Amino acid sequence: MSNVMQIGPLDAWGGEKGKQFLEKEVGAQFAGISVNTTEPGGESAYWHSHAKLEEIYVIVDGRGEFALGDEVLALEAGTVVRVAPGVMHALRALPDSTPMRWFCVRSAGEALVEVGHDGVVDRERAFPWNA
Q1: Residue with more model confidence, 2 or 3
Q2: Contact at 8 Å (CB) between 23 and 104?
Q3: Phi, psi at residue 121, to the nearest 5°?
Q4: pTM above threshold 0.85
């Protein structure tokens, strides 16, 4: 297995689903990474948190908002957001933005295969931008 892959230009990030996980393709054991595209006006499907995973979001292009617990943060190219384990979060691309391109790095201090799917989902909580 090679530890190198090509994800292509920004406008291809995330493929058809808007999200592409890369850790398996590069053989990562302890850190996960995804490349993502959120279309203008698009948003997370639901609030969620992780029991063990810490996440770092890096915005590469576009503008949006990030709900981090009770706080709403403005997003633009160059914004970096850390999400601690147990903190509910969601994001959206502003309707008047270009597609928001971002990546998310995940780590839990142990092998990802040991962490498994540790997400907690809240489909009932309204996003602050929809309230």
Answers
A1: 3
A2: no
A3: -110, 140
A4: yes
Sheet of strand 54-61, all strands in order from the earlier edge strand to the far edge: 19-21, 31-38, 100-107, 54-61, 80-83
Long-range contacts of 12-21 (CB under 8 A, 24+ apart): 13/37, 13/101, 13/103, 14/101, 18/42
DSSP output for 48-107: EEESS-EEEEEEEESEEEEEETTEEEEEETT-EEEE-TT--EEEEE-TTSPPEEEEEEEE
H-helix or E-strand spanning residue 32: strand 31-38
Summary mean pLDDT of the chain: 93
The answer to whether residues 89 and 49 touch, using CB atoms and an 8 Å cutoff, is yes
